[in-house]
Amino acid sequence: MKIGAHVSSAGTLDSSIERAQEIGAEAIQIFVSPPQNWAFKTRDESEFELFRQKATEAKIEPIFLHGIYLINLATPKEVNLEKAIDSLKRYLNTCAKLGGSGVIFHVGSHLGKGIDSVLPQVIEALKRVLHDAPEDVDLVLENNAGQGRNIGAHFDELAKIIKPVNDPRLKVCLDTAHTFASGYNITTPDSVASTAKEFTDILGESALVAVHANDSKVDLGEQRDRHENIGDGFIGNEGFQALLAHPLFQSIPFFLEVPGYDGKGPDRKNVEALKKLRGQALSSV
Ligand SMILES: [Zn+2]
Ligand SMILES: [Zn+2]
């Protein structure tokens, strides 16, 4: 599996490729607009072309986009639902132009109403997003830590959304910090095996297309979203080595979203820590 990272795409999009090379990342996740803002920047074909060219030269792949943080497909506000659908469509189209694999995003919060009452709206919204989206780009639901009445902390909740939409492009990204904080143990080979089995039983192996590799500042089941550098949190090196050794994750790219040792996000030290664990995992299986 590739060891990748979320990198900044500030400036022109191709600048993210250089940032990936600086830290040794083999794959990347980027935003294509500021994540706290609905505004979407239109870009020239030449910018997409330059990005694709540099990514190919640097052998950076796969490429995933991360959707903006304002999206909540369970929102009670009609205008915000329309903005969210529009944002995801734009991201999927941009992803196709960049030669990317998919758009990872957070479904949102039911704000206390319960998942069952918002489910029809979420399903309908996803169908609309996928209706005229490119054929070769996935729309990827990220699991969360279970904080703030967010939807999709548990595998059965993700299945409740994915099964009725019934589209092969609707996939899952597992964030290790969120997985652990929402109550799935992944600290040892045995616990990774049982969490992976639960995932496969409920969602199927083919649902998984990406992992966000983050250690956790909070302990198992604490339902808070606090990323930590690899090996410094409650998941620990043994947990990451077990994940990297498990068959479910063999062809899945891992993207770091860690705070970094200088507080500026994924850095070479974290990339190298994960690469080292990958080497140990591969020699152990
Ligand atoms: Zn995310
Ligand atoms: Zn994440």
Order of helices and strands: EHEHEHEHEHEHHEEEHEH
Instruction: Calculate Rg over CA atoms.
Output: 18 Å
Give the overall shape, derived from the CA principal axes. globular
CATH architectural label: Alpha-Beta Barrel
Helix run count? 9
In the CATH hierarchy, the third-tier topology is known as TIM Barrel
**Most strands sheet:** 8 strands, parallel, barrel
Q: State the CATH superfamily name.
A: Divalent-metal-dependent TIM barrel enzymes
Give the strand tally: 10
Q: What is the strand arrangement across the widest sheet?
A: 1-2-3-4-5-6-7-10
Q: What's the CATH class, please?
A: Alpha Beta
Bound molecules: zinc ion
| pLDDT < 50 stretches | none
Share of residues in helices: 40-55%
Number of domains: 1
- Separation of the first and last Cα atoms: 14 Å
Structural class: alpha/beta
What does this structure look like?
By secondary structure, the protein is α/β, with parallel strands linked by helices. The protein has a single domain (3-284), classed as Alpha-Beta Barrel (TIM Barrel). Helices cover 41% and strands 14% of the residues. The protein has 9 helices and 10 strands. It has helices at residues 15-23, 45-57, 78-97, 115-131, 155-165, 176-181, 189-203, 236-245, 268-284; strands spanning 3-6, 28-30, 63-66, 102-105, 138-142, 170-175, 208-213, 215-216, 227-228, 254-256. The strands form 2 sheets. It has an 8-stranded parallel β-barrel, surrounded by 4 helices. The chain has a two-stranded antiparallel sheet with strand order 8-9. The mean pLDDT is 97. The structure holds zinc ion (ZN) (2 copies). The site of one zinc ion has 4 residues, from loops.
